[in-house]
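Quick note —
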Amino acid sequence: MIRAVLICAALVALALAGNAAATVTPNVRGTVPALSGPKMPTGCFVDEPCDPPIGAVSTSVAFSRPGHTTVRVRAVGGTFALHLAPGTYAIGVTPATGDVTPATVRVPRTGIVRLRLTIQPTP
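Predicted structure written out below.
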């Protein structure tokens, strides 16, 4: 009987440990603002077709570094949060409509990195 209780307690402890490991706190947070550039609302002209601002479409942010799998996260409502291993990452945005600033980020071992991405449209 005692053995069954100990086994049951060990299984519960393992289940709780598995859930604790699955809930990792984001260490990179950021925004992809709808306004990219010097306070231009959308860059559209009246009565002409126009693409919506970057933040209004489904935007994904990609973090990559040599020898590792690229990590992608969706910017919901123009914001994103994720957990990355320490290191330096190149940043990309999909859909690719221009040059992303900053182009790289260094993720430290401790603390949170806050990014405000801007996109300079390519001609």
